[in-house]
Design goal:
By secondary structure, the chain is an alpha/beta fold. The protein has one domain: NAD(P)-binding Rossmann-like Domain (Rossmann fold, 3-Layer(aba) Sandwich), CATH 3.40.50.720. It has nine helices and nine strands. The longest helix is centred in the middle third of the chain and has 29 residues. The radius of gyration is 20 Å and the shape is globular. The chain starts with a strand and ends in a 6-residue tail after the last helix. The model has no long low-confidence stretch (mean pLDDT 93).
Length: 276
């Protein structure tokens, strides 16, 4: 039995993962900004579930959540940074306040959680950190530049974190889900107040009022939850886990495109070395 601390469990992948972890017989610290939305986990699993109020942008709540988790279960074995939300806007349209709030939640909130659990993991020379990203970090669609950037920042951090933690017996994994049938494209999705007409055919097509995919996504959150547990419990957890055929397709397409671009400009790139 291990103890999982999962952020952002009120809906979507976080909620599905919390249920799967508990059903598998593990302990789960199930968190949400509004704790009433996750109390039912305690009702169903009174011995192994702990529901906590947690806003990852609140440093006090972050520290308290980890302390209460360790007090109840002795240790946090797996941290899953799932809390986050989407934001759609052309780069020019995004407001400074919106952008800062997005990064405070999607990136800096995860950083705060990681720093809070690592002392315990380092002391035990064991643990796993799972950071939930998005296929948008690779695909970078028009209209999702700031969201993609927040997830790309998380991926860059996790790549370095993995190298720092591997000698200490701690794994770090990026999970890139595709489109799953969750509330991400519904209640959890925000956008800029301003829409500039010149971007109507690019970023504008992804604005909420023009989005018709919500409720029809092909990804199954329950299957994603089981896949995540399987990856974490494997002898060698992956550094990158893609979830969904659409995420796989995006990754391959982007990789192939980058390879073609690299070859096209190889001579110019290589020509910047000192000539001997």
């Amino acid at each position: 039995m291990s103890t999982w601390l999962i952020t952002g469990c009120s809906t979507g992948l976080g909620r599905a993962l919390a249920g799967a972890v508990l059903a598998a017989g593990h302990n789960a610290v199930v968190t949400a900004r509004d704790v009433s939305k996750v109390r039912e986990f305690e009702d169903e699993y009174p011995r192994t579930a702990l529901a906590l109020a947690l806003d990852v942008t609140d440093p006090t709540q972050v520290v308290e959540a980890v302390a209460k988790s360790e007090e109840r279960f002795g240790a946090v074995d797996v941290l899953v940074n799932n809390a986050g939300y989407g934001y759609r806007a052309a780069v020019e349209e995004g407001s400074d306040d919106d952008i800062r709030q997005l990064f405070d939640t999607n990136f800096f909130g995860a950083v705060a959680m990681i720093k809070a659990v690592l002392p315990g993991m380092r002391a035990r020379r064991a643990g796993a950190i799972v950071n939930i990203s998005s296929m948008g970090a690779q695909g970078r669609p028009a209209g999702s530049g700031f969201y993609s950037a927040s997830k790309a920042a998380l991926e860059g951090l996790t790549g370095s974190l993995e190298k720092e933690l591997a000698p200490l017996g701690i794994s770090a994994t990026i999970v890139e889900p595709g489109a799953f049938r969750t509330d991400f494209a519904g209640r959890s999705l925000t956008q800029s107040a301003e829409a500039i007409a010149d971007y109507a055919e690019t970023a504008g097509k992804r604005r909420i009022e023009n989005d018709t995919v919500h409720g029809t996504q092909q990804g199954d959150p329950a299957r994603a939850a089981v896949a995540t547990i399987t990856a974490v419990e494997s002898p060698e957890p992956p550094s990158l886990l893609l979830l969904g055929t659409d995420a796989l397709d995006v990754f391959v397409r982007v990789s192939d495109s980058q390879r073609r671009e690299l070859e096209k400009w190889r001579e110019l790139s290589a020509g910047t070395d000192y000539q001997t």
